[in-house]
Amino acid sequence: MIRRYINSVLNIVAAVAVLTAFAPMLSWSRLEGVPVPNHFDIHGVVDRVGDRSILLVVALVGLGVYILTLLAQIFPNIVNLPVPARKAGIANDAKRDLAAQLGLLLSLLFSFCANSTLSVAAGKTQTLNMWFIWGMIALVLVCIGAALFRIYRR
What we know:
By secondary structure, the chain is mainly alpha-helical. It is built from four helices and two strands, in the order αββααα.
């Protein structure tokens, strides 16, 4: 019961994060002809610019990832792991929890990328904050490790 409540809260926060990824669309008309960063190097420095459509692409990919994590929570068997039959229930719970956690982390990541790209395009900052991205990647790996530990511990 408590897991469902926690997963519901994570899904609500993730939905809000996905919606904030679309916030740069509010500046859509002002970005006409403005060079918008399309790629950042490993240090967060812009190394390729293009048009404003990248902001929409990032937001739509974030929405797609969020929808996939919701589907993985509803249908945990689409996440294919070799699990003994006696651990099928534990594995399904772990996969649902992992999907909720990844949904939140990846939604935050896509929202950060969309809004930070807009900030760089507007000239408010010069680089992307890579610490946030590396932190999110580390949290994703921790969540995956914890789920695998839950499933495969003896």
